[in-house]
Amino acid sequence: MYKKGGNFGLGEVSGDLSIVGDFTTIPVIDVAGVYSENIRDRKAVAEKIRDACTRVGFFYIEGHGIPQELIDNVFSLGKQFFALTFEEKMKVFVNNRPNYRGYTPLFGSGNPNKEGLGNANEAFDWGHDPKLNDDPNDAFVDPFMKGENVWPTESLPEFEECLSEYYRRLRSFSRVLARNVALSLDLAEDFFDEDLAHPGCSAVIAHYPPQAPKSEQFGLDPHSDSEFFTVLAPGEVRALEVLNKRREWVSAPPRHGSFIVNIGDQLQSWTNGLYISTMHRVSNLSRLERYSVPFFFSANYECVIKPIPKFVLKGTKIEYEEITAGEMYKNTMIKFHRIATTHPVYSKYVIDGIHDLAQHESQKHLRYT
Ligand SMILES: O=C(O)CCC(=O)C(=O)O
Ligand SMILES: [Fe+2]
């Protein structure tokens, strides 16, 4: 369930924070039918999506139509980026951007351990900005996280173009998939369209180096995603695990050519818990370098997320707080990146004030117009 402040970065899983599904395997869905002009084809996909979203919250997708070459190029450039020197990568340090774009160093995010180290991954974030927006009516009013993407253009001239193309491609696919999600909920297919006109999406290339076998740290702490849904390119190395009702962590290994889609807190809230935003975590115990690219598909930042009345049964209590998509994202990012601002190695790169919590709190009076 989405609680104010989000639950990203939880070190342990407590029962009351998440709804968990009854599953032992993650379904595989061929989604090619979402592009069909024939409603019967679209409905056939929607039925499978409904089953996966109510029971698991995770599913593999085939037939998505996103060119493998584009995915491969993103991974290849990501590997080149992470191979740059620390100083070079820190030129685009995430904590010097109010909108959390750029580089998060290894151990620089998540819950710190006794030595003050966080998650065993390094990452590069990019996302919604005026340049990537495709809605002429979007004024890009974001009181919390104003700013543009930041690119390591000096070292990697092709980075911006390739990652921007990936962003646009994944956003357009996600809009089509969202129509099928609407259908799966017996809503009009265009039900979410307006709220996804200038979606505040973001994407990450993450590098998870191999962890020591008995490492107490995670590659990524157990969490649920805060957005509408996530379309994950999981790379080639098994490391992602998904929590079921019996408190078992079910492995979600990569399947070549498939993405993994998981429901986020926005959709869980919109459906009043019918669709599950399932907890998951990453531990890379494979001895191989792992790279993955989640694309977080969100509603417009100013969109207020609250249960759709038809999912609220008479006499039941609404358990989900009303919150804008932008605030959800901001809360997640502040929590997730706090460690980088206090860690002795990274803090010397921090420009004071940008990620001051008090400063964010004091902006609370600002609202989208
Ligand atoms: O890399 C993965 O397999 C999952 C990443 C993830 O869960 C996230 O970034 O939210
Ligand atoms: Fe996640």
From TrEMBL:
One of its GO terms (biological process) is small molecule biosynthetic process. Residues 199-299 form the Fe2OG dioxygenase domain. Gene3D superfamilies: B-lactam Antibiotic, Isopenicillin N Synthase, Chain (2.60.120.330). One of its GO terms (molecular function) is metal ion binding. Keywords: Iron, Metal-binding, Oxidoreductase. Pfam families: 2OG-FeII_Oxy, DIOX_N. Belongs to the iron/ascorbate-dependent oxidoreductase family. This is 1-aminocyclopropane-1-carboxylate oxidase. It comes from Exophiala viscosa.
